[in-house]
Amino acid sequence: SREAATEASFVKEAMISHAVQANLRESDVGKSEAEERQYRSRKNSRRIAPVDASATSFAPGFIAPDEDYNGYRLPLPVTFEGARGLMRHYLMHGESLPLHPTYVSYLTLEFTKAYKAQHPRPVVHVDTPSPGRLTVVGDTHGQLADV
User: Fold this and answer.
1) What is the reported pLDDT for 36?
2) Reduced to 3 DSSP states, what percent helix, strand and coil does the chain have, rounded to the nearest 5?
């Protein structure tokens, strides 16, 4: 039934969320108390302080969110630590504190540039491990011959 499928989907998402949270907790186990204080201090300063103007020199046209924005302040250029911070933010707040549209725009443009640099042609050829299968997700716009 539809209700059972919805419940199963919820349970699956909860299990994934718990696994991600456990992974994040495990990665924090080795931190000393001083490192944890330093991390929290940086996190709090990012919430309060707007993005430093010098930090946007690598991204012409990027406009930092206003000071009253209380969502996650993504450090730019994006680092592994910044990506983990964003993941933690979504685990703690879900959709209630979405990423500011300027960050979404920045990430989309940077991904597009990086993808075009790595795959200059519109068709990407990939090897499928044997035995294996490849699942294509997306809209073919009726061009099934391209798949």
Assistant:
1) 65
2) 60, 0, 40
User: What kind and span of H or E run contains 41?
Assistant: helix 33-48
How many beta carbons lie within 10 A of that of residue 103, not counting itself? 22
- How many other C-beta atoms can be found within 10 angstroms of the C-beta atom of residue 15? 10
Contact between 76 and 106 (Cβ < 8 Å): yes
Do residues 103 and 55 make contact, with C-beta atoms less than 8 angstroms apart? Answer: no
What CA–CA distances, in Å, run from 102 to 62, 72, 143? 7, 12, 34
Give the chain's count of helices (H) and strands (E): 4, 0
Is residue 44 over pLDDT 70? no
Give the contacts of 47 (CB within 8 A, at least 6 positions apart).
Answer: 70, 73
Across 82-99, average pLDDT = 90
100 contact partners, CB below 8 Å, separation of at least 6? 65, 69, 71
C-alpha 52/C-alpha 10 separation (Å) is 40
